Amino acid sequence: MHQYLDLCRKVLNEGEWVYNKRTGKKCLTLINADFEYDLSKGEFPLVTTRKAFYKSAIAELLGYLRGYDNAADFRELGTKTWDSNANETQAWLANPVRKGTDDMGRVYGVQGRSWAKPDGGHVDQLKKVFTNLSNGIDDRGEIVTFYNPGEFHLGCLRPCMHTHNFSLLGDKIYLTSYQRSVDLPLGLVFNMPQVAVLAYLGAIISGKQPAKAFHKMVNIHIYEDQIEGIKTQLERDPFPMPTLKINPDIKSLEDIETWVTPNDFEVVGYEHHPSISFPFSA
Predict the structure, then answer these.
(1) CA 66 to CA 282: how far, in whole Å?
(2) Model-level pTM?
């Protein structure tokens, strides 16, 4: 994907060094970037200058859509992305609200499926949005947000990609996703396909046509121990973008909640260069 590689070059050339207190590392940092994915052509935004483990990314997204709050549930779907945050973050381990091994607290999908109301009730944001879209309704607020400052202390991690705004124009679905913090070598390679899959699923469940997804990013960074890996990627010529085929039996939000797995998503024509091992900054 040329827009991904162009952003890598821009961060290397224009980014400023910032010390990150949480990780204890320096990172090259740039503010603001916008990607656009044309879903009407079936395009699937995967990095091709190294192998991207898209099934793990899809598994994580499915866990969010189901409202999971336990790393074991994510592992069962096929991803270990929450193991570290749930079990190795010292502040979370010391938090008295933590329920035990693998507990993530009220993060991401919990907020999307069960946002706490002051009166003691809960709001299922995702169900509201998908129901409205299915009925041809767009109230200019078809938004699912995971960002709840009032409950940050109840979870192991603040959300990075935090808000998804669906729009309906005629029979076409658009999605605008917002990301506050972007680990360019690792996180973004996961987040790009997640944005696309969410948009495709919104279109499928509502019976509409996928149009475009807009991916808006704020703080984009490359950690100091990731620089050489990025330079290696930039030396490689990208392959054409693959396409995505989704199991046509998926019809509803209930399907996603009950039986859908990453194996129901098939990437067609994915050519890629060899993997590159990037250090993860917890």
Answers:
(1) 24
(2) 0.96
